[in-house]
Design brief:
mainly alpha, two-stranded antiparallel ribbon, 16 helices, 2 strands, about 0% strand
Length: about 425
Amino acid sequence: MGLINNPGMLVFHIAIAILMIGTGTINTLAAKWADMLRAMGYNPRPEHIFDHPYFQAAEMFLGEMMCIFAFKAIFYYKKCRNLDMKDFGPQKFIPFVWAIPAMCDLLGTSTMYVGLTWTFAASFQMLRGSVIIFTGLLSVAFLGTRLKIHHWTGMVFVIIGLVLVGVGDVLFSNQDEAASRYTLAGDLLIVLAQVITAVQMTVEEKLIKKYKVPALQAVGWEGVFGFFTLAIALIPMYFIPWHLPHPEEVWQETTRFEDTLDAFVMLGNNWKLLFASIGTVISIAFFNFAGLTVTSTMNATTRMVLDSVRTIFIWVFSLAIGWQVFQPLQPVGYFVLFIGTCIYYDIIIMPAFRYFRLKLCYSHSSDYQSLSSGDVHDGSDVSSLEEEDEEDEKKPLSVKKSVQYSTITSTYFNE
């Protein structure tokens, strides 16, 4: 009702949801587009593909780092105008505490970008849903969280969906045997990265609860530490005489683990590559901002649903422009993953189940009361029942419904 009476807020919610889905979709597609573009570089000298996953990870951290500037702008704006500052928390923490989740983010993101160079954009986005499994298990081990039956059920569905997506990538990708092996390896790397991401999310939750830090500020500090750490790490990576294998033959004069100079030269020689890189940086910044805004103005479950929805746009776009062929198991796998996500976060599936179960309970309760009323012969019992009915009729409808719901849910749904 609140949104109906406030059309301005409804428009804002729709706009921020579109912004989150749009920037999230652009982020994944821009990164994959960059992986497929070719340009003249510093090493190797012939025109070649943009095979620089660690450089792309640095771009992602640069986008996250922009969130700290957005936070500071909002913070000082409210402070100068003497507005309510309670949402910013006590601000009593050492920024270096965010170096720990930033290192997890660095390892996880770098691993995912390596996997993205070997697999499909849609599979990349779908397989990221496996973070639910590892986050749930780690929250039990380190945060003392008690998982309920719907959490475990959701995890089982997610595992089945992951298997379907992975098998579909291998069996229906129309690739040769060598390329199929790289695709499978890319899928496995993305799932492996979710273990690191789960550790990151567990540490973040602990720090945010302990220091009461706004999420936008937390993302910004992680971007700061992640960007500068990776920027320094790129220097020794340039001198390591080894390069990640690639399904395409990559000729190099000098083998390097990550050739940052080659990446910059390629950006200068291909405007499309530069456009894709800028798109990655800007989209990740706006995606984080929009996601945190959805969480604060709506709720976290809405953010999870929107994040799942963008997978559809990535998949459809990849099919439309020929980045991949249609794989029958992929939509099935995505559907199972989506069902698992809904069950885990207790959205759509479980609320619908409880609603129909509740309706069934109401129906049986009404039938039982109608049968029981015919068996009452004692006048005093009838009188007392009538008095109870009269008192119950005086209660507001919302109170009666709440009592009925509480009684039935405590009987049938208490876990």
